[in-house]
Amino acid sequence: MVVSRGTQKFDRVTITLVPTADERSYRHVPSTFDRTNRTYAWRHFEKIEYLIVPTRISSREVKIDMFVGSTGKRKAHGSSLHKTIENLVKTKIESEWQGLKLAGISRPTSAAPPEQTFSRGTIEEILGTSLEE
Questions:
Q1: Which of 7, 49, 51, 74 is in the most buried spot, having the most CB atoms within 10 Å?
Q2: Where are the domains of the chain?
Q3: What is the pLDDT of residue 2?
Q4: Measuring CA to CA, how many Å separate 58 from each of 26, 64, 100?
């Protein structure tokens, strides 16, 4: 149920959020992407560290993958991990994720979090040709 990266262990849960009638729903798509470093950043909540990657955004639902690791010596298991994640989501909905409501949280599965940094390509790289031809 866990993947080891060095001495750290991670679980992944998929969280489904439903936009409300509030127009702010799409302004607050959950993510821990750090624009300065152009990579996903780890955040802390209670006894876990987490990383959020949006996987689907539509008018009906917003799906995010949350990678979770424990910050203490003991790893959170089963219902305690699920309860901590649920508390985190409810806290975020009240403060940062306005216009979204919780529809579901999947069971934890083993996963390695994304380590890729993202760089914006030049227009020539995107088009696959030089503009001066």
A1: 51
A2: 3-127
A3: 36
A4: 9, 12, 12
pTM of structure: 0.74
Q: What is the maximal distance between C-alpha atoms in the chain?
A: 61
Residues 6+ apart with CB under 8 A from 90: 102
Q: pLDDT digits over 56-77, tens only?
A: 888 888 899 999 987 665 555 6
Residue 71: partners with Cβ closer than 8 Å, 6 or more residues away: 44, 47, 48, 49
Q: Give residue 56's identity as a one-letter amino acid code.
A: R
Measured between alpha carbons, how far is 39 from 14 in angstroms, rounded to an integer? 20
The pair of structure tokens assigned to 69 is 């690791």
Of the CA atoms within 13 Å of residue 49, those in its CB half-sphere come to: 14
**Termini Cα distance of the chain:** 54
What is the fold of 3-127? Answer: Alpha-Beta Plaits (3.30.70)
Query: HSE on the CB side for 4, CA within 13 Å?
Result: 2
Q: Could you tell me how many residues make up the chain?
A: 133
